[in-house]
Design a protein that fits this description.
Elements lengths: L1 H22 L12 E2 L2 E4 L3 H28 L10 H22 L1 E6 L4 E6 L5 E4 L6 E7 L9 E6 L4 E5 H4 L5 H10 L3 E5 L5
Parallel strand pairs: 6-9
Antiparallel strand pairs: 1-2, 2-3, 3-4, 4-5, 6-7, 7-8
Helix pairs in contact: 1-2, 1-3, 2-3
């Protein structure tokens, strides 16, 4: 029993570290206003979208922890409950997925000019990128979760250029202010859709 308690405590501690290190500092977003600069529109997420995704994720992870505790406590006597172990790990894994997508969203700023389809991306840990959405994108792929978990659906668009690859998380795509950018993307490309258990960027 002590071993099980230690495992749960370690997972809980990991949860706390991950949340405070990657998610909590990045919960700020714009308030949904359209941000423009010299004809370019900022393609970004909002505080509301990130907060909603965070709340849904924390609820899902909490269910995963409860399920894990039940399995660890009762599986000694009821072996059949072990089949719930992968499910609990999957639910807990949503926290890692949220962290990955929030971090990707915050490390780049995407600017789109609807007049000429020019795109300029400012990146924190890499060189900035300039390209034309209609002329320079060779292929577009959409990677999404295999299922919707309690209203939570992770995924991203991947734009392949000649020498770069751009990922745009659903956290950005779900912002209604980015409708024109997404419509341009869908209207001009045949988007290949791929499903993954954990669509990590």
């Amino acid at each position: 029993m002590l071993k099980f308690i230690l495992i749960v405590c370690l997972i809980g501690f990991l949860f706390y570290i991950l949340y405070n290190r990657f998610i909590k500092p990045n919960l700020k977003g714009n308030d949904g206003k359209i941000i423009q600069n010299n004809g370019y529109l900022l393609i970004d997420t909002t505080h509301t979208i990130i907060s909603k995704a965070t709340n849904l994720t924390l609820t899902t992870v909490g269910i995963g922890f409860i399920l894990l505790i039940i399995v660890l406590v009762l599986a000694i006597k009821i072996k059949i409950l072990l089949f719930l172990l992968p499910i609990s790990f999957y639910l807990i894994g949503q926290l890692f997925l949220l962290s990955n997508h929030v971090k990707t969203t915050k490390k780049q700023q995407i600017w789109f000019n609807p007049q000429n389809s020019a795109v300029f991306i400012e990146q924190i840990d890499a060189d900035n990128i300039n390209f034309n959405l209609l002329n320079d994108v060779r292929r577009v792929r959409e990677v999404k979760s295999v299922q919707n978990t309690r209203g939570l659906f992770f995924g991203y668009y991947e734009l392949m250029l000649s020498h770069d690859t751009i990922q745009i998380p659903y956290l950005v795509a779900e912002n209604p202010q980015n409708k024109l950018f997404l419509e341009t993307l869908h209207a001009n490309f045949k988007i290949a859709v791929e499903s993954k258990l954990f669509p990590i960027i």
